[in-house]
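FAQ: What does a ligand-bound record look like?

Like this one, built around pyridoxal-5'-phosphate:
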Amino acid sequence: MPLAERLTHVQWAIADRPPQCLLAASKGVAAKTLRRAYALGLRHFGENYLQEALDKQMALSDLDGIVWHFIGRIQRNKTAALARNFDWVESVDRPLIAERLNTARAGMAAPLNVLIEVAVSAEDSKGGCAPEEVPELAIAISRLSHLRLRGLMALVHPQAEQADADFRRMAELFFALQQTPVHADLDTLSMGTSADYLQALQHSATEIRLGTILFGARTQESL
Ligand SMILES: *Cc1c(COP(=O)(O)O)cnc(C)c1O
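The answer part, i.e. the structure of the complex:
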């Protein structure tokens, strides 16, 4: 199915509850396909691998208004390049990473938008901080002047019932943070992928991250 049709399908499905941000999760997707996505109106792209992302940013540098989000695992030695080449980093899960991003962002016009990735699912071995650690990490990030904490991000359990509990927990964590005066301006709860974005939106997601449903299945080598 062509990209335009896939996107129309998604837009129809979310029409009664549109998120603030529909992020195209574009790992393994060629720059020329992202160019088509841009022509269809998509502006937010989420990448998982630094070098792949830099290559695409170069190839698409003529397009105005693209917002680049990093949604992959963060390697400590890549923090400087991430801070300088992305608008958002969604996978911050420990103070050391936040501090390194902050240092590298100094001197740039705008602060780096960051989300705390939460390992909300017991199954998630991909990273993220423990739910109990969120308040302390949020405070630590809010003290860093070149970062702007926007909210939380998570990948949830693949099974719908467990996912439901995970989404609910994330919404609770997010709303609890927003009750704290220093975090009253948090506006982003990034959760939901191709498999579960409607469920995520029912649980107050403000950003969904869609790969497969927009671009088709990733081949093994494209990962
Ligand atoms: C790849 C990826 C997605 C998109 O997953 P799909 O199932 O292809 O929609 C979302 N979030 C993260 C962090 C990803 O790495």
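Follow-up question: can I read anything off the structure? Yes, for example: The mean pLDDT is 95.
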